[in-house]
Task: inverse folding
């Protein structure tokens, strides 16, 4: 990720120092910039969204019923409302990408203030074994490899 950013900055600066046909520098920049849906700048959140739903806002897990870009479960809605001490979020909010990201940050800030990837995986995945045999360690490897 760091190399990509340095390359983009270098090309951006180069586009202002080299005489190029009109619009060429913009074409180069647009082709190299990673375009992430929902303008997610946080690499950890970006990895979780990629693993959970591949950026599909209407994703639904047929087994667990989890929904949205972060595969929110009803217990997550309950937990974030408990943390906030009000009923701000509803089950339907799981299909809203931006509200899902708010839920993510509230839960992570409360339970994982150091924003540790291992702890984030344990919180989001759970500590047990999933129906397909996947463990939180497998899940962490997916997150670290961006899916």
Result:
């Amino acid at each position: 990720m760091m190399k990509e950013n340095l390359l983009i900055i270098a090309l951006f600066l180069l586009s202002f120092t080299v005489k190029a046909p009109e619009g060429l520098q913009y074409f180069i920049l647009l082709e190299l910039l990673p375009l992430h849906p929902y303008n997610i700048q946080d690499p950890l959140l970006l990895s979780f969204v990629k693993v959970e739903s591949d950026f599909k806002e209407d994703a639904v897990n047929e087994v667990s019923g989890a929904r949205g870009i972060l595969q929110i479960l009803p217990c997550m809605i309950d937990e974030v409302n408990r943390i906030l001490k009000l009923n701000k979020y509803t089950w339907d909010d799981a299909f809203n990408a931006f509200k899902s990201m708010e839920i993510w940050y509230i839960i992570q800030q409360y339970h994982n203030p150091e924003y540790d990837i291992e702890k984030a995986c344990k919180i989001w995945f759970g500590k047990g074994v999933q129906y397909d045999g996947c463990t939180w360690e497998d899940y962490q490897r997916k997150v670290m490899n961006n899916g």
The radius of gyration is 19 Å. The domain at 38-144 is CATH 1.10.530.10 (Lysozyme).
